[in-house]
Amino acid sequence: MKLVSLMMILVMLALTGCAASLASLGTSKATMGYTTAIHKELISLPPPETKIVVAVYKFGDQTGQYKSNSTATTFSTAVSQGNTSVLIKALEDSGWFVAIEREALANLLTERKIIRSTRENYQQEIKEQKKEAPPLPSLPPLLYAAVMLEGGIISYDTNLVTGGLGVRYFGVGGSAAVRLDQMSIYLRAVSTLNGAVLKSVSTTKSILSREADLGLYRFVRFKRLLEAEAGFSTNEPSQMCVQEAIEKAVHDLIIEGVVAKLWNLKNPDDMKHPLIQNYLKEKQDVEVKVKVDKEGNLVVKNPSSEEVKYVKEGWKKSE
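RESULT FIELD:
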């Protein structure tokens, strides 16, 4: 009986705490925005010799995925459709690029037409009043880009990993479940001079969802049933995951361009900067080099492991 009373008190405290948490969620203030794990590395890259003018027409969702729902049909997309704005913000934060407006180019051109029309009407009215019209400065031309950035979210895979566990003993128990999704982003730099693809990078981000619950189901006395349950779930917002993947892609594209001498560092000695060296080491660990020996066997050399040779029997250590 004492155990049941103690359980009831603990459950009531848990429910009270949840109610207080839910109440506080409704009174939170707006913040400046979410800072990703890669953001500090992006804004800490060494400065460029000259900022690159880039144009982004559209960086969209190319997956065609919709939110998974087992109970009803939904037409909500799995990821945000405003990824161009996220990419432009990442380019601005990096300090390496000058992004020019291209997604709303029609609106920009319309506004410039309105400016020209207003000026012409003003000068016409002055002439009709037989007054000398003051000279108006000409409308400056639009900036043009040396590089275009293309790409998008090319995959969104759900339920890559699912699992859970649970236990129940004499009406008291709980369970936990986990699900892992994954998205991939490709970003490429295209020369506006000849249309050549200068560099292309890809990034992948996992999206983790977790759920846990606790329940009590027991007769405390004759015809008196006690039933209580509590639970919570956490889901990584897909938009924040998209933002982190895009910032990682911009980070990688900058370093790839420096290595390929597409653009230069303000200080050439910054090539030894820890952020650049860490990326080069990460890339070296991911890529696997393949060569052919004198016997015609494929030999794979991975910097993090020993050489292995592929022969008819299968893989084995290279002697």
